[in-house]
Amino acid sequence: MNKTVLGIAISIISLLVTLAAVAGGQALIEQRIGGRGWKVLTVVLLLGASAAGILIDVPRLPIVNESIRNLFFHVPMWFAMIMVLLVSVWYSILYLRNPSAQLDILSHEAAKSGIVLGLLGLATGSLWAKYTWGAWWTPDPRLNAAAVAMLIYGAYLVLRGSLRDEQQRARVSAIYNIFAFAAAIPLLFILPRISGNSLHPGQTGNPGFNKYDLDSTMRMVFYPAVIGWILFAFWMTQVSSRLAFLQLKLDEK
Known about the structure:
Elements: H1 3-29, H2 37-55, H3 71-97, H4 101-132, H5 141-162, H6 166-194, H7 216-252
Helix pairs in contact: 1-3, 1-7, 2-7, 3-4, 3-6, 3-7, 4-5, 4-6, 4-7, 5-6
């Protein structure tokens, strides 16, 4: 199998996995999947990955050294952010097709979960930068792009809070939410790659966490951490949505 065919196959599989994760996330958030099994799994994955991430031996790479352990926290947070924001966008699309207070709340709460995870990602990234680059923040294309993406989502919260009419607020929020996600993806994944030199791992100046330096031991911790943080994002959205629904019922009485 040549590289082109393999790349297409991987892209298709990644798309299918993403769609399945979005559908599964919706089912968890809407409590269509009952039981506590997935919540127990979330706790086990997060606690296990956190403990293992601190205790296991890691490759001694130049520049990053022991700070490579942040890989088990910083990167999974970004994965979880992208997944829950994607779920939020899907709820916004559903709302525009068939407006309802439930869809508006679900979209809003998922967006808030994504923003929380994005801020945690920025915080852990800043901490990592301090220990590897010697500064909490640098004028790095990837860092600045991530900050701009978070500012765009911050504007989403400001915009939503400035509108008093419920239907207008829900509709404008849904439209802006789709725009925010469409703007965030190029900022996070495309512009940094074409902007030239960068200290961020994977680009010039710093080693990347690819198949050559992310060893098998780290993979056994990294992938469960990604799954755990994604499940945590859905769990957090479920809890906040339930509170929002209760508040809506109280307001209607």
